[in-house]
Design brief:
The protein has 321 residues and is mainly β. The protein is built from 2 helices and 20 strands. The radius of gyration is 21 Å and the shape is globular. It is a single-pass type I membrane protein.
Length: 321
């Protein structure tokens, strides 16, 4: 990827009252574009695009009140710090990508009533992701992907789900056994499994376009503290350094390209300094893409029954970061 040209953004249609200034007042259009920002020539103002990862490594995103099945109160959102710094930022490397993940969560207010303590807040957590390509160990000056969202519920059994007005949605599920005939419901989490027990995971695409193809950029497992990460899948192939991660076939593959299945044996993260178990929940997360064959090739090595090719050479990183 060349770094001389700055990509054009498509999310500059931001209402004036929602604009965040990019640079100082009077920034020239050329300097504004170099930052990956938007220019209003009539108002002579430079502002950040919405839901984009910009060249100067800023992420401006909006969490709407209707982004989940249970309405979100924007006044209850926490992003940490007096200067609106993110609550949690994970800085990870996967292959030739530099990945930043920001976690924002909802304040859970407790009501101490006469006969007990209750809450009416859904403990949602929002994970926002930016991906940048690296060149020679340095983050390139342009992003390779727009910002990505994930809505995560805590251990609560409240019926929270993403509301999407788009044509595609992707869901990560855990099957009860290797037959993938039934799945564990959301309220069943967190799971308690013996170490070494197989965990069967499935990514499924819901799309009005039967020709759409689900591609897997990567899948990670990480503990609640987010101080470690284990790469399970990268560019559609299992981590060759972990023989317990397996790509599984779907019965009618390659015709069915709306499902991707893989398994991993249950494990527990350990503290680097003491070699003691970290008593923390482990989360699975996948970054996916909906690909249309009429627009570009949608081949995906291992999930499509092909070899990993350059995966071993490209994945030159520590599993625990």
């Amino acid at each position: 990827m060349a770094t001389s040209a700055v990509p054009k953004h498509h999310n500059c249609a931001v209402q004036v009252e929602e604009r965040i200034s990019c640079g100082r007042f009077g920034t020239s259009p050329s300097d504004c574009e170099k930052k990956g920002c938007c220019m209003d020539l009539f108002k002579h103002s430079c502002y950040y695009p919405l839901d984009e990862c910009t060249v100067d490594q800023h992420a401006v995103f909006a969490i709407r009140h209707d982004c989940a099945a249970i309405p979100v109160d924007p006044r209850k959102i926490i992003s940490g710090g007096p200067h609106c710094k993110p609550a949690i930022v994970n800085d990870k490397e996967v292959g030739d990508m530099k990945i930043y993940m920001i976690e924002v969560h909802i304040i859970v207010s407790a009501l101490n009533l006469k006969y007990g303590i209750i809450t009416r807040n859904d403990p949602l957590r929002f994970l926002i992701e930016c991906r940048y390509m690296k060149h020679g160990g340095v983050v390139a000056e342009q992003s390779i992907a727009s910002i990505g969202y994930m809505v995560k519920a805590s251990t609560s059994n409240l019926p929270s789900s993403i509301i999407s007005s788009g044509r595609h949605s992707v869901q990560l599920k855990i099957a009860k056994d290797r037959s993938y005939s039934s799945y564990l419901p959301t309220y069943h989490q967190p799971l308690q499994l013996l170490l070494g027990h197989p965990v069967y995971l499935e990514l499924s695409l819901r799309s009005s376009k039967p020709e759409a193809v689900l591609l897997v950029n990567y899948c990670l497992a990480y503990p609640r503290s987010a101080k470690n990460a284990l790469v399970l899948i990268h560019e559609g192939c299992a981590n060759p350094n972990d023989p317990t991660v397996s790509i599984l076939e779907v019965n009618d593959r390659p015709q069915n390209r709306h499902q991707r299945r893989f398994s991993v044996k249950a494990f527990q993260f350990m503290d680097h300094s003491t070699n003691l178990y970290l008593n923390e929940e482990i989360y699975f997360m996948c970054s996916t893409e909906v690909c249309m064959p009429i627009e570009k090739p949608c081949e995906e090595r291992c999930f499509d029954g092909k070899g990993p090719n350059w995966f071993v050479d490209k994945l030159g990183l520590n599993a625990n970061n």
